User: What shape does this take?
Amino acid sequence: MTFKHLLSPLDLGFTQLKNRVIMGSMHTGLEEEKQGFEKLAQFYAERAQADVALIVTGGISPNFQGRLAFHTAQLSFSWQIKKHRIVTEAVHQAGGKICLQILHAGRYSYHPLSGAPSRIQAIISPFKPFKMFGWQVKKTIQDFVRCAELAALSGYDGVEVMGSEGYLINQFLCQKTNQRQDAWGGSFERRIQFALEIVKGIRKRVGTDFIIIFRLSMLDLVEKGSSWKEVVDLAKALKDAGVTLINTGIGWHEARIPTIATSVPRAAFTWVTQKLKQEVDIPLITSNRINMPEVAEHVLAEGQADMISMARPFLADEQWVKKAQQQRSDLINTCIACNQACLDHTFKMERASCLVNPRACYETELNFPQVSEAKNIAVVGAGPAGMAFSVYAACRGHHITVFEKSPQMGGQFNLASRIPGKEEFKETLRYFAQQFKLHQIDLRLNQAFTQEVLAQEQFDEVVVASGVIPRKLDLEGFESPHVLSYQEALMGAEIGERVAIIGAGGIGIDMAQFIFESQESLTLDLERWLAWWGIDKNYRQPGGLCTPESISSSQVREVHLLQRKTSKIGQFLGKTTGWIHRAHLKHHQVITHQGVHYLKFDEQGLHIEKNGQVEVLAVDTVIVCAGQVSNRHALKWLDEVDIPLHFIGGVELALELDAERAIRQGAELAASI
Ligand code: FAD
Ligand code: NAP
Ligand code: SF4
Assistant: This one.
């Protein structure tokens, strides 16, 4: 595929964008770190070098009150220009363009001084905002304008005004959060004045040769959000006020509908941008769950938008555009939309990175220079840890031989990719397979690493990445063929009509999803997915919501999900995705049990003790998802050999292991070996 539309330039009149790809705004955490701007400069410059047409920075507040949290970044003073110049100069030298995103969090500010149009607390915030006085509203507009002026002085090519996701401007736009009766509230015309005054003020201050993007909430996905007519009227008014491009915002942060998680179908919301394209004559940018050039090209070729904004795909692969130019999308390290190393980090106030690319946001710290003396290295196991190590070590020039006892690469990640809603995980397996070919890594499938193998070949070092095996429970009746490990269940063992899942961690919850949706993944069927979540393409209600359709599974099953802990089921899942899994469990009427003690399994079912009472769950199948243990015992003989050994991933420590840790460990070892 040639990606004709994706790679064609866009003429904005006063400037040209080299293609249709925007790297969307992401707060990385580097904005607040010591020496963070130097690291940010390298992070952005690598993406610019690889031909991203336009980069948008993470959100920067125009004043103190608008900061996302007390410690987060703000641009209000001329002394701050210097550090922003580090970024803009690096991007320009790399041949790119960059806009600063101005974001006032309003009632989403995670501090007690937050301000909003009305004193209405968000369900996702512990703080009740102060209602802004009229003079504060005017001052905030001036702060936006000043911030844009400083951005221009810092060398940015433009700004993106954050008007969506439920932040301050969005709060002014909607009755849900704006119950004022002064010049800034009441009628639609008055509610949009805040946004329009900001844009007009910026345009007047910065002149005509400066990009102004407005991120417009085209689909609020909350009750009392904007109506479709209001979205259209605002877009037209914004154009008249002087914006250059309108970007698509989908869903407020408090909306209980997933908008970017891996279970969201690809390009699930481009229809909204397309709807607006029929109404306004200004270039529109679309976004959300577009992660591969084929998808982006299709969206543009269909005329749904003029540009594509992708954020996380540029954490996953800085060379995304270059690979599209070379028609090598098979080499792209695809963002699997897991949120694990990016957004979940941000919510924990940690630096963002990427599960599939641990170098993201570590560009100045994690590198793989060529070695002067190549080593002959054996790698045991081609799971995420072994695959990552092998590719990065091969990049450095080492000779890598990988022994994998099973017929395929991927380890437990293969099982993960079988979960409905996790289809994207297959892309990571494809990526590593291609990298193995590219770097001519000697992959020996169906070959366990044994003493005999080691004796036959000459290796300088051995990297053990033999991973984990499912934990077995030593209980009466658990040797029955009706008691399955999660591995057996996912590989096709017969599952009965009444099932007990032991262990409600990530895999236990995935297992419930597998049982109900393995024949009919909603993620692969956009219309059903929209109906399931209650999203109305016809936009009959403000906010775009409708009553979710109860889509019954073709598999009528009773499923129990059990854990020993008394805490909430799924409490330890990622902040940005745990609630989605819990919504699925609820929808499928999974019966959850906490504080359980397991006793035995027999023809009556699973015997448990709960609250001091013995109960029998009349199930015909038990699936054990009770965590894993390290696979180290199988290679105990290695302790006796005289060769440098390294243990990475699950074999090193099974507790709380996930692919993020496994891949990062592999990369870090490769950087140091
Ligand atoms: P493994 O994946 O266990 O790989 C070890 C490899 O070594 C295997 O291929 C094995 O065959 C091979 N091997 C073992 N012994 C030998 C030997 N002697 N010789 C040769 N080869 C050998 N993680 C996440 O981060 N996010 C998720 O959403 C997620 N979802 C999951 C869903 C499911 C259903 C499952 C099962 C797991 C999920 N995980 C997830 C966990 C993730 O897959 C694991 O943490 C990760 O695969 C561990 O990587 P590893 O390389 O350490 O080990
Ligand atoms: P996990 O999340 O640690 O859950 C293990 C479950 O087993 C817990 O519910 C635990 O609960 C139970 N358990 C532990 N020891 C037990 C024992 N001896 N007897 C009975 N029950 C026991 O691990 P996992 O589900 O196996 O997942 C493995 C890794 O993959 C995790 O790190 C996870 O984060 C990752 N993963 C992530 C996702 C995701 O969507 N992000 C999805 C799947 C997997 P009790 O101790 O309360 O019984
Ligand atoms: Fe994408 Fe996951 Fe990487 Fe975030 S951590 S950029 S969601 S692959």
